[in-house]
Amino acid sequence: MDIARAASPPAQPLSPLIKWVLPSGVIALTVALIGGYEFHWSWTGVKPSDQLWDLLHVIVLPVVLATLPIWYRTRQRWMMEWRMVFGIVGVTFVILVIGAYALNWRWTGFKGNTVWDWLELLALPVVIASLPLWFATNKRFEGRWRAVGVVGLAVFVVVVVGGYALEWGWTGFRGNTLWNWLRLLLVPFVLPATLAWFSARTESERE
Prior knowledge:
This protein is mainly alpha-helical.
């Protein structure tokens, strides 16, 4: 028993960011939302007329940026917990989308937004969240990552062609110019892709 205890590495203490800063931020955000919705605190910028869609534009990116350091430090110790969290988030998102578009849940504010609108909302947070995961697993799951990239690119090309050539209105692509696409894709895709390319090249040169 003593040998097993000695062999196992001691658990690293949680950083002050995880213990104090993030919980304080969550509490502050909750107070601001409640104050804006229920007590009409104008300084919060939250209005009772705001829908979930409006709030997502404010909170999605900060939540992703705040979660990444915690995930990186605890992904081995809390593997099951993280899977449960990601599963709950995924199921909740699917329920909200189905409720908004199929059941007309107006409070979500999702209905009427096109693929273009969703890209503006989620492209940068999704890429930022995926990049550390790619760095951590690209060697072990190189084939899977390549397959995901090929499938994603194929779907994207089909949707773009359908949006412009077949006038699929739900894409929201028609009417957007090259400048609009550059503004949409430059930060979420080009810069992270460049960073990933330089990282992979540096590792190959070291080997």
